[in-house]
Each structure stands twice: as C-alpha cells, then as structure tokens.
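Lab notebook, bench 4. Still working through the backlog of constructs that have no structural model yet. Next entry is a single chain of 374 residues. Request: give me the structure tokens for it.
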Amino acid sequence: MGLKFEIDKKSGKSRLGRLITKHGVVNTPAFMPVGTCATVKAMMPESVAATGAEILLGNTYHLMLRPGADLVEKMGGLHKFMNWDKPILTDSGGFQVMSLSGLRKLKEEGVTFRSHVDGTKYFLSPEESMKIQHKLDSNITMCLDECTPYPSTYDVCAKSMRMSMRWAKRSKDAFIDREGYGIFGIQQGNVFKDLREESAEALKKIGFDGYAIGGLAIGEGQEKMFEVLDYAPQMLPEDKPRYLMGVGRPDDIVGAVLRGVDMFDCVMPTRSGRTSQAFTKYGPINVRNARHREDPRPLEEGCDCPLCSHYSRAYIHHLHKCNEILGVMLLTWHNISYYERLMRGLRNAIKSDTLEQYVAEFYANQAKGDIEEI
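Model written out:
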C-alpha cells in the first residue's frame, strides 16, 4: 500500500528519484506549483502541465473554507474538480491557521479559528485535517503540525515540536492507507539541531511515506537555512522522499538539492508573475523597468514558453505597465517554465554526473545578471 519511491542515482548528497502515485510518476528533484484554491493563479491546468510540472500543491485551509471539502468530494475529488489528472499534494492547513494569530486558539486537541473570509468559527484537529484531505483525494497528505516563527526561544520551539510530534502520531493513525496514496511527516525544531534530531527520531518511529522539513524560509535567511539543511535531511530516512516546504528562490532550490532535498513548493513564480518579476537564466528582472520599453528581444533566449517564443520584452513591458491580464498570464507561464526547466537541468546533471559543472554555471550566470545590450 501507499506510495513508492525509487532512487535511481546519487551525486554527493543529491538524489535522482521517482515518486510513484496513483495519478502518475513524479520525477525528483521536483518543484510543485502552488494551486492554493484548486487553481494555479493565471494558469489553466493544461498550461501548467505544458511547463513540465508533474505535481501540484493544494491548500487544505483555503479549500475547507471555499468551496468546502464535501463539495469537492461530491464533484469527484480535487483532480476531477480542477481538471488535473496528475498527482496532487495538499498541505494540512496548519501553517495558514497558525499565521492567523489573533483569530485562532491553540490547544492540545487542535486549533479553533475564525475564517478570514467571513468570520465563521472552525476547529481543525489532526483527525479533521486527515478527513478533509481524504475528501479532497490528494495523493500526498501532510500531517497537521505547528510551525514556530523565527526567531523563537529554545523552550518555545521544543514545546511546539513535541506537540507536533504527538499530532503526527494522531495524523498517521487517522490516515486511511490505500494504493498510490501516502502521508508525509513534518520535521520541526526551528534552527536547533538537537530538536531537529529529536523530531526526526519521533517521525521515524511513527513511520511515514515521506518526510518534510518544515519551519524554514520563515525569516531566518538563506545562510541559516543552509546551516540547518547541512544536517537535517540526513536525519531522515534515506529511502524516502524529502520535501522542503515553502522554498523558494532558484538559488535556494539549487542549494537544497545539493544538500539532499527532493521536493519543493513555493508561490514565488506565480506571485512574481503578478508583480512583474521574471526569473531568467541571468537572474530576476522587473519587466516594468524602462529599459525594456523598446527592446525587441525575447525575455530569455532559449526559453520555449509562449512569452519567449512569440512576444518581445517591449510587449510584456507594455502589458504590465497597462495592468493587462495577458501580461500576468504570460509572465506566470514563463516563471513556472523557468522553475521546471531548472529542475530538469538538475535531474539531467545528476544523471550524467555533471552536477558540479551545472551548479557552477548556474551561479556564474546568476552573478552575471541580465544582459542589457540590444
């Protein structure tokens, strides 16, 4: 029962693998575009698939509020509801609930909170989160946990982590195991190595189909995050996928892959598509900048997305200056394409034993910056 994960090759700590689910295979390292409300913003599902994406992330908190898990289940599950026949991972809702601060009350049984939409009162427990994610029919269910902010004291992080481990056990007990579906545990402990180790041991004792590294990319900075990733992934089982939640920038992803992480998600490529930021081989650029106004070149040479294949920098600059919806659509498509192309490059480099060279070229190009000459 459950999910299958196969590691085909390694390069240092980096791994080339395949996560096998009921709805298809996910080649790892993998990036998951975020479809918070059963949609990747400004993209059709067919367009997301065209970028090479093999798995999406849905958000339990938002979907339980609107349209509701019962309705999604009635419509045939999230895959059918949003017309995405590939794998789906859903988060537990915990991160969003914890961020509500004044709108929620946390206790051992679970979290009572009020909807940010209409103020309706809800209660989310590990068991309820499992029930909701089951109704959504997500291939990868995440256990409910608490994510402590950064910075937090050692005692606060220890208390929170230990409650999250008790919630992890309750989540696993409530999860309905079936072929092609699985549940991931989430390592917590903030930036404290001994707490991360204690969390990993607790999760391994429970036993999960995969393991996430939570509580990073919350303000600690890349240097501190990499310090944690220098040891945290190796605390988790070697034969299971490792998922770094909510990360991130392209250089974050490259650094994390080098440290043994297999899966990523982040709103950055889609959010940046709505705020005029493009990710390219030579680093991020703002398409609203005046230097693009009369530039006939594509946004990125060699990119096969619709924006780069058919339109100029001058046109995408014009669309964003006019706040035209097409500008958001094209730039989001480009950004997700860039992320998926980055993951393919990392996978191919691991496979061909050229990872060191690939990473060196990646950082050299990022440092070079966007070429301005026309």
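Notes after review: The chain is about 40% helix and 20% strand. Residues 325-351 form the longest helix (27 residues). Flag for follow-up if needed.
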